Amino acid sequence: MTQIDTLTDILKARSSCRAFRPDPVDDAVITRIVETARHVPSWCNAQPWQLTVTKGAATDRFRDALAQEIAKGTPPAADLDWPASYSGVYGDRRRACGFQLYDAVGIDKADRAGRTAQMMRNYALFGAPHVAIVTSPAELGAYGAMDSGGFVTAFTLAATALGVATIAQAAIAAYAPTVRSHFDLPQDRLILCAISFGYADDTAPVNRFRTQRATPADIIDWKV
């Protein structure tokens, strides 16, 4: 098997896990994931990404902190601007993903309460035993965030290669002040996203659907 075949297989095997077993991931495995992911490129080799990783009771304390904040009715406050809209094909893909998710867990598309309850699973970290908070220096702006996105991708692929399931969650970044306060993170770092991770609950229906990907013809605009 060639290297490109191996990489393609890992990319195809990766999926967003929405139900985890409680079993913890060994520290050495987590370190190996980061050891691999750190080799991604970044502008000027700045390597702006930093991780705050929880395990054991620390994960539960963070879950509880998010639940308490949401119960207060605290409005979302992200460090980065949220997408203004999802128009055209982007909206189509977003809706298709949502409908596949609801179908997988038996929620009718008209069941607003059920859809909201499923969305709130984000803030319970989908039951994951670990979460990594990804931050980048505010002074690097969008380009630090872009570089960190490459690191998030590499983290999820390295985890997949080691049998660890992941889900990258922008939803957690919607409560950036809560995240920053809970982990005592500095004001000069942007809260970009979280990566909840652990071992997948393969019996959970929510983990069985897979989204479709655009083809090369959809992506490439050749110029000759």
TrEMBL record:
Stored Pfam families: Nitroreductase
Residue intervals of the Nitroreductase domain: 11-199
Coiled-coil boundaries: none
PANTHER family: NAD(P)H NITROREDUCTASE YDGI-RELATED, NITROREDUCTASE
Keyword annotations from UniProtKB, A to Z: Flavoprotein, FMN, Oxidoreductase
Protein name, UniProt field: Nitroreductase
Cofactor requirements of the protein: FMN
Family: Belongs to the nitroreductase family.
